[in-house]
Amino acid sequence: MMDNLSSFRHILVIEDQKARRIVALEEASYSVGRESTNDIVIYEQVVSRRHATIVRVRLSPRLDTYSYRIIDGDLEGNRSTNGLLINGKLQQSHNLKHGDVVIFGPKAKVSYYIISTALDIDLFNPLDPEQFEVGEETVMETMIADDNNNSTLINEESLQARDRNDLIRLASFPELSPNPIIEIDFTGNLTYLNPAARIKFQSIEQEKLKHPILAGLLSELHNIQGNLLLREVVIGSEIFEQYVHYLSEHQLIRSYLFDITARKQAEKRLEYRAFYDTLTDLPNRNYFDENLEIALVKAKNNNNLMAVVFLDLDCFKNINDSLGHKVGDQLLKSFAQRLSSCVRNNDIISRWGGDEFTVLLPQINSPEDTINLAQRILEDLKQPFEVAGHQLYVKTSIGIAIYPQDGEDGETLLKNADAALYRAKERGRNHYRFYSSTMTSKASLLLKLENLLYQALEEESLSLHYQPQLNLTNNKVSGMEALLRWYHPEFGNVSPLKLIPLAEKTDLIIPISLWVLKTACLQNKAWQKRGFSPIPIAVNLSPKQFQQPNLVDIVAQVLEDTALEPHLLDLEITETAMMQNIDSSRETLQNLRELGVQVSLDDFGTGYSSLGYLQKFPVTTLKIDQSFIQTLQANSGNTAIISAIIALGQSFDLRVIAEGVETLQQLELLQGLNCREIQGFWFSRPLKPTDATTLLSQV
């Protein structure tokens, strides 16, 4: 604490087993302890002989500015036995501040104050309680006094000249309070400042009623109800709560001030967290919901259209899982900034949660306005995001609901915009869709199927069918592909086109994929025990499963549990899944190959199909996508594509399997292109385990 010698004095109020007394600090240093030779003696058995040292410290080159520091032990480095407990914390040294309390023992403490030199120490003297009629109020605690000091009054009238009521008032002032206390009379003259007020508001005596603390107090004199006024005062970056008491009997206005800056800042932070997302700085769903209700009221009153837009990032989870949450968080922040640049000034964007965002268009002229917004967003996302050294191409799916046709309340509009979002995903992502009433029934069906799928996994009512792969050179089964099936009594056989996306959309895809992997390996091992020639079993890996960081460990554990040789397991992965993170995919595939597992590139020809990628990824098999086979005709363009894929695979010494072969004509054309392996209905549909076993026994 920096102080001016001419304005303030430093005092210690000592309370121990002997008495309560005051010491005015004026010397450069003081020894404190139990022995009588100390400058300040503390009467308490647990206090050390030389317990502490108080030294004056000059805090600036000016000779009239200083503070006091208390040090544990003496100046020779000898520490006390019990240490110094200052404001509840053990400390070796501490720069004393107004109001500090130092505990020396159970019955010994010292309090430090800075008081105005205008304060007469007589105010700390013992007062005869019979002199004053103060009821239940305590006037002042007993203290030992110094002499020859001035009055605490601004006008410096002597204490002896004060009448009894003035003495009571002065004695009740908490001169030792760390909070500012200020008093003026009804004409605006300053009559009292405690030390805390002098230190805090150094210009108040010059500015007087122009100072923010005093401004307006006189004008409120006849306006307040009762005698108390509470207000907040802002001075620079600080905020004070001011309790103003109008004491008509004494013609005085007394103010008690409390610094509430920290509290206000905390309230502001809490309010921000209540309505804003701390990661993206966008409004959160609470803010969005409130403004949606306001917009609905205005739309109803003004009979205008409005819209709710729901969107999320396609494949964000894969980025988050493979590159880490820091990269994912930075991507969300960058996406939020781009999204903000696409909307109008009065539109409201919020981060709904995770990678989901909503946009409120409180007034639109027609649905075309939402189409323009969706197209701006999709166009803006064509440019990649640069995040932590990674170039990320991000796509989004967008669902749109219009008021009043798609809902007349906020909950319905949000639900229908969400349904439209998922319909956009079904179309292949990176699209926008408007809500239609048919979506609700389909969404309800999907929700029901999702719940039933959970039950199916728990009750083990899922099954695998096996589709054989035929080697055309020797007419033998060269492998089996395991395909997931689900039969439900109410819905019958659920199409794989619904089942797989449904599992992908939920967290079930991971446990389901693990069940498929283990079941297929057990089945292959069972065929070997029956004496059949060993053939590889192919299992499709979902994109989510492929992005698991512990995938290789999972595969290794399944092989160990089922005792299947690694080269008899063929994991099928799509080009799209591998391309989501090239470096991570290459490392995973390399580790799988080192394990001995075969790797097939599924649906080859529909994605990147780059020669460079075949060099990078250690795959063992190419599977020609069935879309090329289904339109295969003599002299067609697909014939050239298939021929090129077969030649490419053979040049890399890879197996090449044509999927979806259904007719004799397709078979003959493929044989003419030197295709050696096929899979499809022409040879066999997917078979139940018993039927697959029968087939293997026949061929």
From TrEMBL:
Residues 446-699 form the EAL domain. This is GGDEF. InterPro entries: Biofilm_reg_signaling, EAL_dom, EAL_sf, FHA_dom, GGDEF_dom, Nucleotide_cyclase, Rev_trsase/Diguanyl_cyclase, SMAD_FHA_dom_sf. Residues 304-437 form the GGDEF domain. It comes from the Bacteria. Pfam families: EAL, FHA, GGDEF. Residues 30-91 form the FHA domain.
